[in-house]
């Protein structure tokens, strides 16, 4: 199982990378995410293949990258329509899977690209969420991933980038040895430019908690440990309620074509108790106009309050109030790039064999996935 990893350790040849998906998460264009640009800052990597059903888009992306400062990385890059064909034909060391969640994380043939990669011994970076299948169905997929990983020794990392954010590292150091009294997270989505129809349908995205608020649910686990599942309660404002009326859903979404039960909830609020700590709570809303959404996390302990403000933005701040002062300290993180740190950790794990560098394993991400489903289901109980 560890054989493939130890072969790479200490090797100085370029790693052969493939991308599944030529969209924004892998190649940028909307939001701060863009794995390719981060990888271009790391030496001894070559991109040998991109798979996307939209081959024209993939070709355009490739031409743009070839003209860029690191065009040399894409010199031998091939375009594939089928990701499965790509992994059969190319001798890939690592793959980045950045496609809608209903296109992977399933035992259905063709929707099992992550499993196919791990089975082939290819180190795999997977964007969140890990699936859209209900937990009772996903369980068998997770089991299959675990079994194949045990055989091939492939590294699997999931894109929970906040675990690599300097501000979150600082929060963890403040929390060491303390009991958290409350964890409160808030995410307000700016929806007027959300022109991906898949996002507006729970069948394809899983809904806002599973697809989007998952980052803040994951942070709850990372900073405060596991929730007591039996204590989760939640409420939602559905699309059909007066308070759920949105005036500026992009026309391309055609939300009126989505069956009522699968239209995304406009507001979800949830709370729960942690096993080792106090209470956790989450508010997710689809209400802002424009492009900039808002996110924050506040943690209270006896004699201390930590407030993480706008972790998605370069202007991210951590405000800390401690027992010995009424005033607060403010830390800024202009140069923090958790998207770079997460891919760097993945590549270094492949090169060194040190699996502790990956902060979000598949097994761990699956627990966050399960937690988000519990919140969604609790909110859907009328």
Summarize the helix and strand pattern as letters: HEHHEHEHEHEHEHEHHHEEEEEEEHH
Unreliable parts: none
Q: Walk across the major sheet and give the strand order.
A: 8-9-10-7-11-12-13-14
Share of β-strand residues: 15-25%
Main sheet: strands, sense, barrel? 8 strands, mixed
Radius of gyration: 21 Å
Estimated structural class:
alpha/beta
How many DSSP H or I helices? 13
The end-to-end span amounts to 47 Å
Q: How many strand elements?
A: 14
Mean pLDDT: 95
Shape assignment: globular
Residues in helix, %: 25-40%
Sum up the structure in keywords:
382 residues, alpha/beta, eight-stranded mixed β-sheet, six-stranded parallel β-sheet, 13 helices, 32% helix
Describe the structure.
The model has no long low-confidence stretch (mean pLDDT 95). This protein is an alpha/beta fold. Helix content is 32%, strand content 22%. The termini are far apart. The strands form two sheets. The chain has an eight-stranded mixed β-sheet with strand order 8-9-10-7-11-12-13-14, covered by helices on one side. The chain contains 13 helices and 14 strands.
Q: How is the secondary structure organized here?
A:
Blueprint: H1 3-8, E1 15-20, H2 24-27, H3 35-39, E2 45-51, H4 55-67, E3 78-80, H5 83-89, E4 94-97, H6 113-119, E5 123-126, H7 135-152, E6 156-158, H8 166-175, E7 180-190, H9 202-205, H10 208-211, H11 214-224, E8 233-237, E9 267-273, E10 279-288, E11 294-301, E12 304-309, E13 317-322, E14 329-332, H12 338-352, H13 362-380
Helix pairs in contact: 6-7, 7-13, 11-13
